[in-house]
Amino acid sequence: MEFLTFLVFLGCLYTMLTSSFGLLMGIGRQFSMAHAGMWGLGAYSSAYVTLELAWPLWLGIPTALVFGALAGALVAVPALRVGVGVYLAIVTFAFQMVFVNLLTNLGDLTGGSRGMAGIPAFPSIGDLSITQTVTVYTAIAAVLVVLLVHVWRRSAYGRVLLALGRDEKVLEGLGRDTRWLKIQLFALTGSLGALAGVFYAQYLGFISPESFSVHQSILLMTMLLIGGAFTTFGPVVGAWFFVLVPELLTRVGLPDSVAAALQQILFGLLLILFMIFRPMGIVSSRRHRPPGRRVRAADSSDSDPDGPGGTGGTDPRPDQTRVGVPS
Amino acid sequence: MSAIIEVRGITKRFGGITALSDASIDVPASGVLGLIGPNGAGKTTLFNIISGHLRADSGTITFDGRRVERKRPSALARLGLARSWQDVRPLTGLTVLDNVLVGRRTRDAEYPLRGLIRWRSARAEERLAKEEAFAALQRVGLDERLAGEQIDDLAFAEQKLVTLARLLVGEPKVLLLDEPASGLDVESVDRLLRVIRSIAESGVPVLLVEHNLAVVRDVADRAVFMSNGKVIAVETPDDLVRRADLIELYFGSRWVA
């Protein structure tokens, strides 16, 4: 029972993280390696104020939201200078590394590499255990985050974010300050990522720097790639997929040592197969085509924002089979 | 005729090359003004400076009574200066409707939380926005039924028209078109020019860069002839093509009888 609770908790937690990350990476197409850092910042900041400063527990939530937003905005500032793509990946990667190093080295504040323990959790609801209670709250928060992202995605604002991910220059020409827009996007998604940290800290009662390493950012990215970053439910599917499938693998009777290795191989294989056959992930949408397709018959391509790799054929309706389920 | 854009004494150097030297033009507050000249004349440079994508080394630009030579493209666009791109730049993977709607600047699209809090008004605003987008599509002569299509599925000429509609929903005060006829077949050019004329007649002045003389003759009321970074002449297109000196600059001497 306890284990089942843990799985549900993880599913909800990663749902929150991938949904917010999907808004950043899938819709806004801002490549970030720092999302795990946002998550960690939420965990640490909320833990600090509720444990060390003994603030009321619920204040941990706005604290995390504010810190996540500030950190997101901070990451966005150098991102403005490097544009998109691989440079942005490197800058955000650096932020992620610095963050974990700070956690490890600011011993007075964070407990250093030993982390923080004894983080208080919300009082139990009825007969539920503490972990079950936190899971309930996590589930509620996850639903709210998914809803929020869903509404955003379909709103006029979401349309602007989509355009940001496609062609900044065009958007700038249409009267949007793309610098400010990027800061907003990083701040909003950072804030939502940090929210997940609050529940994580409360559930475990213990946090340490390595929980929020760059590997977690990569895991989140993989979840998006498999689930699909361009829809509301793609990130949700990706999150649960990666929480449940490893679990199923350990249940088929393989010894742990084999299962762990098999899992790594399987995930690598899956990733490759998805990139080839279903680049939009499990849940795709008619509204978004795979990135990298070029405009047909465009006479100049020096400023194509999608970069290389497009099929760019002359067939007027290519890729119909790849578009997948209508939204 | 009053001018909506006054360009005065713009100079721009790229390294040792002087792309523009002391160029001055007036874009009249109505009608179509063509910007023409041989390759390397500096017309695209001037165009990019007006739209804020390049910064001039010296000179001033006044748009609608405001000094704008130091403004960002987005600020200029908000003031009502809309520009198109030679390579069209549709937002690939999005529907035609979304492509047009992006051009509308509303506070819901500007502030992330506004549409969530005032969701009723946001929904009404979306309905209104769609109607305006349909109207804009009609204005550029596109069938409303295309609205749900992916823009990638449209022909190049139609994509151009969609990006025009995208500019129109932003209610521009002036339209800057970067080589609108490039890459189009004769029929599509005709179609596009009719649309440009009708936009100009509806009261939005147009400045277009074009190296195709026939296009300028067809659509422009007046044309600015540039060569070697200088404004050589401002005439009606018909007078322009009669000037042997300009034709020589444009085509080289062997074309002059």
What does this structure look like?
The complex is a heterodimer of chains A (327) and B (257). Chain A is mainly α. Chain A has 13 helices and 2 strands, in the order H-H-H-H-H-E-H-H-H-H-E-H-H-H-H. A two-stranded antiparallel sheet of chain A has the order 1-2. Chain A is globular. Mean pLDDT of chain A is 85; it is low at 291-327. With 257 residues, chain B is α/β, with parallel strands linked by helices. Chain B has 11 helices and 10 strands. Chains A and B meet through helix 6, helix 7, helix 8 and helix 9 of A and helix 2, helix 4, helix 5, helix 6 and helix 7 of B.
Summary?
The complex is a heterodimer of chains A (327) and B (257). With 327 residues, chain A is mostly helical.
Show the helix and strand layout:
The complex is a heterodimer of chains A (327) and B (257).
Chain A: H1 2-27, H2 35-52, H3 60-82, H4 86-105, H5 107-110, E1 116-117, H6 130-154, H7 156-166, H8 168-173, H9 178-204, E2 206-207, H10 214-227, H11 233-251, H12 256-277, H13 320-323
Helix pairs in contact in A: 1-6, 1-9, 1-10, 1-11, 2-3, 2-4, 2-9, 3-4, 3-9, 6-7, 6-9, 10-11
Chain B: E1 3-14, E2 17-28, E3 32-36, H1 43-50, E4 58-63, E5 66-67, H2 73-79, E6 81-83, H3 96-101, H4 107-110, H5 114-117, H6 119-139, H7 156-168, E7 174-178, H8 186-201, E8 206-209, H9 213-219, E9 222-227, E10 230-235, H10 237-242, H11 244-251
Parallel strand pairs in B: 3-8, 3-9, 6-7, 7-8
Antiparallel strand pairs in B: 1-2, 1-4, 4-5, 9-10
Q: What is the element string of chain B, with H for helices and E for strands?
A: EEEHEEHEHHHHHEHEHEEHH
Structural class computed from helices and strand pairing of chain A: mainly alpha
Oligomeric category = heterodimer
Radius of gyration of chain B: 19 Å
In DSSP terms (H or I, runs of 4 or more residues), the helix count of chain A works out at: 13
Counting DSSP H or I runs of 4 or more residues, the number of helices of chain B is 11
Kindly report the average pLDDT value of chain A.
85
Question: In total, how many beta strands of chain B?
Answer: 10
Helical fraction of chain A: 55-70%
Gyration radius of chain A (Cα, Å) is: 20 Å
Major sheet of chain A: order of its strands?
A: 1-2
Q: Give the CA-CA distance, first to last residue of chain A.
A: 36 Å
**Largest sheet descriptor of chain B:** 6 strands, mixed
